[in-house]
Amino acid sequence: MSNSTHSRRGLMLVISSPSGAGKTTLSRMLMDKYEDVRLSVSATTRDPRPGEEEGVHYQFVDHSTFETMIEKRAFLEWAKVFDHFYGTPRKAVEERLEDGKDVIFDVDWQGADAIHDQMPNDVVSVFVLPPSIDALQKRLEARPGSDPEKVERRMAGARNEIRHWRRYDYAIVNEDIEVAFKELEGILTTERQKRLRQLRLEPLVQALLDEG
């Protein structure tokens, strides 16, 4: 790390929330404002959907390639969802961090734990809470294409996600999206200044001591 030409090491910003609490909107707002903050691109074995681009939305690979990547420990975390595999490639993330840029991860609590276990010094985790269960349900009901069955399933999943909120470094209550964004932005700014991420400090302090 000390050989980097960048003034700081990037960080891994893990953002989790129950469906409908606002993590996707907050992530987009952060990326719109900061050019050096980008969403992690996962690898998957499923086929591309209309409008999805290779390397932008996902890295599309076959099952054999994915299994080889698992064997080579090429993922920070991976999971099988129904018939398809999804995983976070390690190399691209590490290169981005070394380049002084930040990576957002939109994962659940299990993915957050897995990523933290792999690179604990680089991870900053944030859990986004709704102001109330009623507010969350109304947001889910207002989504295009929602129906009572989908809402009920997501509400059940939401309660399970919320139970794990203490695992995170920070928690934000998203009652007002602009206020929540300011809080998230404040977390990013503070974490960027952490001593371990300020790569210029070690040589600077050594130079100060040598001058003395």
Walk me through what this model shows.
This protein has 212 residues and is of the alpha/beta class. The chain has a domain at 12-40 and 100-211: Rossmann fold (3-Layer(aba) Sandwich), CATH 3.40.50.300. It has helices at 23-33, 63-71, 90-98, 109-118, 133-141, 148-162, 177-192, 201-211; strands at residues 12-16, 37-39, 42-44, 58-60, 75-81, 84-89, 102-106, 123-129, 170-173. A five-stranded parallel β-sheet has the order 2-7-1-8-9, with helices on both faces. Strands 4-3-6-5 form a four-stranded mixed β-sheet. A hairpin with a 2-residue loop joins β5 (75-81) and β6. It is globular, with a radius of gyration of 19 Å. The mean pLDDT is 92.
> The biggest beta sheet, please?
5 strands, parallel
What's the level 1 CATH class of the domain at 12-40 and 100-211?
Alpha Beta
Number of helical runs? Answer: 8
Report, as a whole number of angstroms, the end-to-end distance. Answer: 25 Å
CATH topology of the domain at 12-40 and 100-211: Rossmann fold
Mean pLDDT: 92
Q: Indicate the radius of gyration in whole angstroms.
A: 19 Å
In which range does the helix fraction lie? Answer: 40-55%
Q: Globular, elongated, flat, extended or rod-shaped: what is the shape?
A: globular
Task: Give me a quick take on this structure.
With 212 residues, the protein is of the alpha/beta class. The protein is built from eight helices and nine strands.
